[in-house]
Specification:
heterodimer, A: alpha/beta, N-(1-d-carboxylethyl)-l-norvaline Dehydrogenase, domain 2, globular, B: 471 residues, two-stranded antiparallel ribbon, 15% strand
Chain lengths: 770, 471
């Protein structure tokens, strides 16, 4: 849908953490190596190296053939080896840990290593090995300094906080965090125990439960790092190379200082910090904190995600019963969590996201440097915003000055909110805005490399715009249509150059929603597709590419579900209940609210189009109900009234009483056999999943991975289920088909399972995700 | 601009000021003899169809650490003193001066066109127009080149250019909220309205707004940027301290030998006549090594001792077309030849202006680095980074789009009478000092070409070729 589907915060940005990608696996070296002389061991090492600079050992992490370092078995083994040598070497008084890759200290544990484990015990063992190693570092008689540049996440952060001192580069790439929770895990190498002691209980909970990335300057304030190093500009080397070298020099200085006691690792704590620490030392206060945090987590996760609750439990055990108990339960819980289906689903999404950050069409012939966006509405301005801040010159064109002003203000506001959050300086904001040209005419379109239209969803308007644009753009320029339902081939029908026409379906709000659905027609050229994907990736989007058809993939899946929502409402379930039932299943936004967000007029429009294209399968709820709502002006959030009443500044919105009459008018009898809460949930979800499977069956989708990503990131399909296809696998195709048949018996063909699902149901070994 | 360094510098033990007076790196002493012996085969840089512009004279009042003798004056007082000094030295008839241009950085709001106020007070004709320019640390360079442009274009024959800075007093403002309230108060008509406005004033309204010492675009102070630049070029604390010591020692030597002839005495009202710069204090490496970093704490390399202090001062220069000067019977000191302005990334290359400007101005003049006999570079911060950058092929190729490096100026021709580090750096006034010093050194050392270069806030820079007027 063109309009809002607010994705769940937690998955908003999957960790750069495990952005590990598959790392090359070299067989773990035996411990025998330790007996060989140092020099030969040095030669054998591929992941960790060690330089001795005077009395300071510099340990460098460098996972070969990878952009990031990950804590793989190999790296851990070599690291242990190197540290043992350092401890044995009398000439070395202190050590610095640093990465050879400027953009990554250690980005986390090697996911493949975790996924290769068959049982919880195996994972627990991994965790305990890590704990032991880091405990040795913590108790090392020679001070160890972590020199952090780039991502320091998950296991990487745990290594850093086991050290005695931390120096970090103050740049945008340097982020610290514990994103394990986003993968359904917890920090499993002592992190749950060390973090609360280091930054205090509230901050530690915040980090571990949200998985948020913390920038270096913030980390310094929190006490997570001790010193910052400003990034350097060009000198006699590239800025990156020299900055990390400088970081090393500074870290060596501190390592030496710690060893000869001229530097103290003790931080001076502010009054507030000391007060908080004092309060947290009181068991009574701690209990209160646990309680508050627990109820917050319950409210947000509806109990669907086991990891956050485990994190609270593990932290609690450590603080109340001591380190040994804490480490033990941390390792055990880590093992248990790693084999949960939630964790598997979240990891699946992570891998899917990595997959969708690649351009399978290759590098386009011509990079898009100038982009024109038609229509300065919510969508158009949103697209402009995510383009200008990536350095793309963007023309924003509207037909009225008022519309244009609104759009330009939206872009300004979006950027300015980043200034307020200090992730952007006001100067950067201004220079970004200089990439934006707002105008009412087609001036400058002769230089555009791509035009994205976000005009009113009406085929005649789209045709008119396409013709106007084609008259002014250069031959290489791509025409992309941001439509949520109109088939691209239909739009391209009036084009003189259909190979340059493509669909780019953004989701609102564009600056928040990660998904971009790209739609290719039979005539769209490979290069056009490559260019569109490249632009999407540059805009920071997770991109899925689907074939053309009514509703493409995302809108088409949502259609039957929303139709079912209407039927449920007609059956007398009130909107609040519908919302509660759907959020309880894991949808981030309740189903009735979703319609309000999308806009009832838009939903009507789409439902009609899709109804025409697909026939009775898209029936269920009465479209006349929507039409009456539109007539009454109940258009949803944008109109202030839909199923709910929306008022500025009022948080608890109330049900729109004007809807009672409408709902009453379209009331249908409910069949108690299929109207339990669970049945309602399954009616919504099975229709969604069935339609998704049909998209795969018909080749709209090229693979289940993109299907899952599209559903979760575009439509808010419950992330804990990993998407419709992963859900079909974990729930069981057989069971799904059974449910569909049950509802089919009551409601008819809308629930008829598609052939692909039937095939899967008939052969249990068949899975969408192997 | 700069930072509050003076107080830290003052903490240096006084005794050490003379301790290193005997600093014996003889970097420059021998050069005059060699240069004098050199045969004069170099061409002159005059261009056909363009008027030759000459410097007749350049003066400056002594540069003082801010907060000392000039503390109670206003900027135009300093400028006035420099202008009067120029008049005294040259005895130029007042009505001959066609135009006056002055450079300044931190403006006193009462005298925002400080050029005009100073000129009127210095006894210039009230018929001589004057304007003020600003371009951070190269403001007086801009004033000079503005004059050069006017003369070359045939619009003027005689221009006085100069610069002034008074860091002892800078405008500190009320907060924006307070200003808004006060301005609205002006418009309030009834007592009720006034009271209601006054009642809205909150304690935070009284927080003063200091003039920014930081780069506006990046919010980074110049010292901090200089420290990063030093790190980027791998320049150690010791190298910087050694350079600072060199600067102070050479300045001291020049002062003692009476080479700083551009200084004119200034009788400060209510105080004694000031005759000498007061920031020159050669210390020892040991003393300097004790200072803590001033910007990147605790491990940076830029300290109060190895960067320039906040300075009060003013300079003035008489520029004419060659024929006018000759017609009036003057013996010009030097030609002002080709000049360039450059700008680059204000974040990571803030102070590399000289690096960019040097090869460009040489190319323009058809000279090479080895043709230059004296180098006068502004050396407030980061001068060593510039020397390294100029000597790096990698930097030239990757950041300047040049085939090869221009090369680092040989130190025996470089700032041999001290520089901004030791003599002081009144932002708006330094450019004229550089040019006139280059001219004096050319004469003293027997060279022909001088190269003046300076960096400025905003990531800008300037360079100019000064050619000795045939003797």
């Amino acid at each position: 849908m063109a309009a809002a589907v607010r994705a769940i915060g937690s998955l908003g940005r999957l960790p750069a953490a495990a952005r590990a990608g598959p790392t090359r696996h070299t067989p773990p070296r035996g411990y025998a190596c330790r007996n060989i002389s140092t020099s030969s061991a040095l030669q054998n090492r591929t992941h960790v190296s060690c330089d001795i600079k005077g009395d300071v050992a510099v340990v460098r992490f460098n996972t070969p053939n990878s952009k990031v370092n990950t804590l793989s078995k190999q790296l851990s083994a070599e690291f242990t080896d190197v540290m043992n040598e350092i401890w044995a070497n009398e000439a070395v008084k202190s050590a610095v840990l640093i990465s050879s890759k400027p953009g990554s200290f250690i980005a986390g544990a090697d996911l493949n290593m975790l996924e290769a484990c068959k049982t919880a015990q195996e994972v627990t063992q991994l965790s305990q090995d890590g704990q032991k190693m880091l405990e040795k570092i913590e108790h090392s008689p020679k001070p160890v300094v972590a020199a952090i540049s780039g991502s320091c996440l998950g296991g990487g952060l745990e290594v850093a906080i086991a050290c005695h001192y931390r120096v970090a580069t103050k740049d945008r790439k340097t982020v610290l965090g514990t994103p394990e929770v986003l993968l359904g895990l917890l920090p499993g190498a002592g992190g749950t125990q060390r973090l609360p002691k280091m930054v205090g209980l509230p901050a530690a909970f915040d980090m571990m439960l949200t998985g948020r990335n913390i920038r270096a300057d913030r980390a310094k304030k929190m006490g997570l790092v001790d010193q910052l190093v400003e990034p350097l500009g060009p000198g006699v080397k590239t800025p990156e190379a020299r900055t990390i070298e400088y970081l090393e020099e500074v870290a060596i200085g501190f390592a030496r200082g710690l060893a000869n006691k001229t530097v103290s690792a003790k931080r001076s704590r502010g009054l507030m910090q000391r007060l908080t620490d004092y309060a947290m030392a009181l068991p009574f206060v701690r209990q209160q904190v646990y309680k508050t945090v627990e109820s917050k987590v319950q409210k947000q996760t509806k109990g669907l995600y086991p990891a956050p609750l485990k994190i609270i439990e593990v932290v609690k055990t450590g603080l109340d019963q001591g380190n040994d108990a804490g480490y033990l339960i941390e390792a055990q819980s880590f093992g248990q969590l790693a084999v949960t289906k939630e964790s598997k689903a979240l990891m699946g999404l992570y891998h899917g996201q990595v997959h969708c950050k690649k351009n399978k069409f290759g590098t386009p012939q011509k990079e898009v440097k100038t982009l024109a966006v038609l229509g300065a509405g919510l969508m158009g301005a949103g697209i402009a915003q995510v383009s200008v801040d990536k350095g793309i010159k963007t023309i924003l064109k509207d037909t009225t000055q008022k519309g244009l002003d609104r759009g330009q203000q939206q872009v300004y506001k979006g950027l300015n909110s980043k200034v307020k959050k200090k992730s952007l300086t006001s100067f950067e904001r201004d220079s970004i805005l200089s990439n934006l040209m707002g105008q009412l005419d087609y001036k400058g379109f002769e230089k555009a490399d791509m035009v994205i239209e976000a005009v009113f969803e009406d085929i005649n308007v789209k045709h008119k715009v396409l013709k106007e644009v084609e008259a002014v753009i250069p031959a290489h320029c791509i025409f992309a249509s941001n439509t949520s339902a109109l088939p691209i081939s239909q739009i391209a029908a009036v084009s003189k150059r259909p190979e340059k026409v493509i669909g780019m379906h953004y989701f609102s709000p564009v600056d928040k929603m990660q998904l971009l659905e790209i739609i290719t027609t039979d005539k769209t050229s490979q290069d056009t597709a490559a260019s569109a994907v490249a632009v999407g990736l540059k805009q920071g989007k997770v991109v899925i590419v689907v074939k053309d058809g009514p509703g493409f993939y995302t809108t088409r899946c949502l259609g039957p579900m929303l139709s079912e929502v209407v039927r449920v409402l007609q059956e007398g379930v009130d909107p609040k209940k519908v919302d509660a039932i759907s959020t309880a299943f894991g949808f981030p936004v309740g189903a009735a609210t979703l319609i309000d967000e999308v806009g009832v007029d838009v939903a009507t429009h789409v439902a009609e189009d899709l109804g025409k294209a697909f026939g009775p399968r898209f029936g269920g709820g009465s479209i006349d109900l929507f039409k009456l709502m539109v007539q009454k002006g109940f258009l949803g959030r944008k109109a202030g009234k839909g199923f709910y009443v929306y008022q500025e500044g009022v948080k608890n919105r109330s049900v729109n009483s004007g809807m009672d009459e409408i709902l009453e008018k379209f009331r249908v009898p409910a069949n108690p056999d299929v109207c339990s809460d669970e049945d309602i949930q399954m009616r919504l979800v099975t229709r969604f999943v069935n339609e998704a499977a049909m998209c795969l069956q018909e080749g709209i989708l090229s693979n289940p991975v993109e299907g899952d990503i599209g559903a979760v990131f575009g439509l808010g399909f419950p992330p804990c289920l990993g998407g419709p296809f992963r859900f079909a696998d974990s729930y069981g195709a057989r069971q799904l088909v059974d449910k569909l048949r049950k509802y089919e018996a009551v409601y008819g063909s809308q629930f008829t399972p598609c052939q692909l699902l039937l095939d899967h149901a008939n052969s249990p070994s068949k899975k969408f995700h192997q | 601009m700069s930072s509050m360094l003076s107080s830290a510098l003052r903490n240096l033990p006084v005794s050490s000021a003379w301790a290193a007076g005997a600093f014996t790196r003889s970097l420059s002493c021998s050069s005059p003899f060699q240069a004098a012996a050199q045969p004069k085969t170099k061409k002159t840089l005059g261009k056909t169809g363009v008027k030759n512009v000459v410097v007749v004279e350049g003066v400056r009042i002594p540069f003082l650490q801010s907060g000392t003798t000039y503390a109670d004056l206003m900027p135009h007082d300093l400028a006035r003193a420099a202008l009067q000094g120029l008049l005294t030295r040259t005895s130029v008839p007042r009505d001959v001066v066609d135009y006056i241009v002055y450079g300044t950085v931190i403006q006193e709001v009462k005298t925002s066109n400080v050029a005009r106020e100073a000129a009127l007070g210095a006894g210039f004709s009230d018929k001589t127009p004057a304007h003020t320019v600003t371009m951070a640390c190269i403001s007086s360079n801009q004033a000079m080149t503005t004059g050069v442009g006017m003369i070359a274009a045939g619009q003027c024959d005689v221009v006085v250019a100069g610069g002034v800075e008074l860091m002892s007093d800078v405008p500190i403002r009320h907060s924006r909220k307070m200003r808004k309230t006060m301005l609205t108060l002006n418009r309030a008509k009834t007592l009720g309205q006034k009271l209601s406005l006054i009642s809205k004033i909150r304690p935070d309204y009284f927080a003063p707004e200091l003039p920014a010492v930081a780069e506006f675009s990046t919010s980074e102070t110049m010292g901090h940027s200089a420290d990063r630049l030093a790190a980027a070029f791998g320049i150690s604390r010791l190298e910087q301290d050694e350079y600072a010591l060199r600067s102070h020692s050479l300045a001291k030597k020049a002062q003692d030998e009476g080479l700083l002839q551009d200084v004119v005495p200034f009788k400060v009202p209510g105080k004694d006549t000031v005759t000498k710069d007061n920031g020159i204090r050669p210390s020892s490496l040991e003393q300097m090594g004790k200072l803590k970093p001033a910007f990147v704490k605790p491990y940076g390399t830029v300290t109060a001792a190895n960067s320039s202090f906040l300075t009060d001062g003013a300079s003035a220069m008489l520029i004419m077309s060659e024929e006018k000067a000759l017609a009036m019977g003057y013996k010009p000191k030097a030609y002002l030849r080709d000049f360039v302005y450059v700008s680059q990334d204000p974040k990571d290359q803030l102070l590399l202006g000289p690096t960019y400007a040097t090869p460009k101005v040489l190319e323009k003049a058809g000279l090479t680095l080895s043709d230059i006999d004296v180098f006068e570079f502004h050396e407030a911060f980061a001068i060593l980074a510039n020397l390294k950058a100029m000597d790096s092929d990698w930097f030239a190729q990757n950041y300047m789009g040049r085939k090869a490096k221009v090369g680092a100026p040989p130190l025996d021709k470089f700032n041999t009478w001290g520089g901004s580090l030791s003599l002081g750096h009144p932002f708006g006034a330094t450019g004229c000092r550089l040019v006139i010093t280059a001219a004096h050194r050319l004469k003293k050392e027997g060279g022909q070409y001088g190269l003046v270069a300076a960096c400025a806030a905003g990531g800008q820079g300037h360079a100019m070729i000064v050619e000795l007027y045939p003797q």
